[in-house]
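question for whoever is on the cluster today: can someone run the full assembly for these? four chains, 410 residues total. i dont have access anymore since they changed the login thing
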Amino acid sequence: MARTPAPGTRERILATASRLFYAHGVRAVGMNRIISEAGTGKNLLYQHFTTKDDLVAGYLGRVRERRVDAIHRALDAAGDDPRDRLVALVGELGDLVTRTGSRGCAFRNYLVEFPDDSPAGSTDGADTSVGAGTPATLAREHLAEVRAVIDGLVGELGTDDPDRLADELCLVVDGLFMQAAHRDPDGLRRGADTAVRLTRRLVGA
Amino acid sequence: MARTPAPGTRERILATASRLFYAHGVRAVGMNRIISEAGTGKNLLYQHFTTKDDLVAGYLGRVRERRVDAIHRALDAAGDDPRDRLVALVGELGDLVTRTGSRGCAFRNYLVEFPDDSPAGSTDGADTSVGAGTPATLAREHLAEVRAVIDGLVGELGTDDPDRLADELCLVVDGLFMQAAHRDPDGLRRGADTAVRLTRRLVGA
DNA sequence: GTCTATAAGGGGATAGAC
DNA sequence: GTCTATCCCCTTATAGAC
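^ ran it for u. tokens below:
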């Protein structure tokens, strides 16, 4: 059988595509450019990803794994206090946004770029199994995933109005990512610090 | 001379283009669709807007005028207290985001869609005269404009660290607009309420 | 003359075939 | 890998209608 002649090929394609999609936007990057920069043949790419949407889904899935891992590492490092864990969560996302070359959140950016793909209110019989859907559903699933983490931690806090606090923290996180689109590195640094400071105040840490 | 045979044409084109660009994204809408939905000839469109970038600039300029007007009306209606005016500013933007069919901020969305056009840190000898530049400069100009309004109002407050408060309010505003990309109408309503409530708390009103 | 409708040019898109 | 097919993009040019 030996069905995988070059095990690194898929990952190399995915890494190249991810870098380009994230840096320039999904619509701005064509398959030709990915093929030429990945140094692979066109046949091989379409063998691993039958369509561009598949490749985009692979891109978002890859970012998602890394994002989830990074979040859980940050949470674990923060200890057991849900207050500290919430601050660590926002701090981790702040670090992500202030990294050089950062262009914010891959998922939110995708949804801005493709507003017509399964819009916010729709539940059109989509494949609800995690990780198998379209790019848009993948993006929304991840956002819901993070929201669930926030809800869980806020719930542990035992405050009067947990939904209210969770909404506030989500607003801060969204603001953090939106600023990546238009603020310079200095402003981003200050934006991330602001997000962490605000989080600290909101959770009462 | 009588150089303007049909005075309403330009505005009709601009209205159609604005609706389509805002709803579906700039890249997703082609000139053909604008022409067909505006009911005008292709020649006439290119007579008023020599290139698609011109049309996009016209779109953003149009949104900008209306946005600035709406902001100033809201500020005037709020009275003289800078606290009330800041709350009114965020409230106005919240209303904008919760309107049916809203897709958030046209300027921020454009910058997400075209990250390579005059990126955040660049000051490549662009035309700095207001309203005459490329879409990207137009977008950045408007964001700076609103930031200046916030800075001014925060300055009137006479707090210890005005830059800090202004950063916090900008984070809230950015979060408000980012949520338009991925929250459903119910979530958006709560997000807007959260933004106003948070603003009230931050400015001490 | 003013506008519409249509075709064509030049490029690049996805995707498939050899 | 290259080559082709098909389509859509922006833009210009031409031809026809009022």
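summary bc i know u wont read the tokens: Chain A has nine helices and no strands. The mean pLDDT of chain A is 93.
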